[in-house]
């Protein structure tokens, strides 16, 4: 494709150069013809003057036309065979380089898009995995907290039962001690005040009756 474009441009430029050379040749011929019309006057004036313009001398016209045509022919040959092909080669190389750069840029863009898609997929997978791990960790923490709360509640209940049993035992022991002490005091008071020797069992029974009456 670049070769066809370069050849097309070369042909177009060659045509333009040829047309330009033809136009210049025609203009040169017109100028020389106009000069030839005034040549008699210039020749008549040359009889009275020692010098004049050689390019306006009709005798020099064929030589000038020959060299003009030869010069334009050489220029046309150099342009069509040397300069324009070189310009076409430069343009072709430039177009090929631009095409390669564009193709490489498109390839790099596709690769970048593919890498970006992979990165986004990896990020999405990492987010999903992280959310799963967070949910599992939260569930484990909640289960551990519930287990700890249950164990703590059972431990507290057991300690409360143990404490209540200890308190009840201590209370019964204290009441027994109070009964015994109260019976001893009652026997001692009865013996000292009334001179009556009260039996220990009777004294304890009397004290128990009084305590039950107070509690009731």
From TrEMBL:
Species of provenance: Azospirillum doebereinerae
Coiled coil regions in record: 91-129
Principal location: membrane
Membrane topology note: Single-pass membrane protein
Subunit structure: F-type ATPases have 2 components, F(1) - the catalytic core - and F(0) - the membrane proton channel. F(1) has five subunits: alpha(3), beta(3), gamma(1), delta(1), epsilon(1). F(0) has three main subunits: a(1), b(2) and c(10-14). The alpha and beta chains form an alternating ring which encloses part of the gamma chain. F(1) is attached to F(0) by a central stalk formed by the gamma and epsilon chains, while a peripheral stalk is formed by the delta and b chains.
One Pfam family, short name: ATP-synt_B
Localization terms from the record: Cell membrane; Endomembrane system
HAMAP family the record matches: ATP_synth_b_bprime
Function: F(1)F(0) ATP synthase produces ATP from ADP in the presence of a proton or sodium gradient. F-type ATPases consist of two structural domains, F(1) containing the extramembraneous catalytic core and F(0) containing the membrane proton channel, linked together by a central stalk and a peripheral stalk. During catalysis, ATP synthesis in the catalytic domain of F(1) is coupled via a rotary mechanism of the central stalk subunits to proton translocation.
Regions that span the bilayer: 59-79
Keyword Transmembrane helix included in the entry's annotation: yes
Family named by the database record: Belongs to the ATPase B chain family.
InterPro entries: ATP_synth_b/b'su_bac/chlpt, ATP_synthase_B_chain
Molecular functions per Gene Ontology: proton-transporting ATP synthase activity, rotational mechanism; proton-transporting ATPase activity, rotational mechanism
Highest taxon above the source species: Bacteria
Cellular component terms per the entry's GO annotation: endomembrane system; plasma membrane; proton-transporting ATP synthase complex
UniProt name for this protein: ATP synthase subunit b
Keywords carried by this UniProt record: ATP synthesis, Cell membrane, CF(0), Coiled coil, Hydrogen ion transport, Ion transport, Membrane, Signal, Transmembrane, Transmembrane helix, Transport
Signal peptide: 1-28
């Amino acid at each position: 494709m670049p070769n066809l474009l370069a050849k097309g441009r070369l042909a177009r430029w060659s045509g333009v150069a040829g047309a330009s050379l033809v136009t210049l040749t025609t203009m040169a011929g017109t100028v020389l013809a106009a000069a030839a019309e005034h040549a008699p006057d210039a020749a008549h004036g040359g009889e009275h003057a020692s010098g004049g313009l050689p390019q306006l001398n009709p005798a020099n016209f064929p030589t000038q036309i020959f060299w003009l045509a030869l010069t334009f022919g050489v220029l046309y040959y150099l342009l069509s065979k040397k300069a324009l092909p070189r310009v076409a080669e430069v343009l072709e190389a430039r177009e090929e380089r631009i095409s390669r750069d564009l193709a490489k840029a498109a390839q790099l863009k596709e690769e970048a898009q593919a890498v970006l898609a992979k990165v986004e997929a990896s990020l999405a997978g990492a987010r999903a995995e992280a959310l799963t791990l967070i949910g599992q960790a939260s569930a484990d923490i909640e289960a551990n907290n519930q287990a700890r709360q249950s164990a703590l509640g059972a431990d507290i209940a057991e300690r409360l039962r143990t404490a209540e049993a200890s308190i009840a035992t201590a209370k019964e022991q204290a009441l027994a001690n109070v009964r015994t002490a109260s019976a001893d005091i009652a026997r001692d008071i009865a013996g000292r005040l009334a001179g009556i020797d009260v039996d220990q069992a009777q004294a304890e029974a009397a004290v128990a009756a009084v305590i039950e009456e107070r509690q009731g």
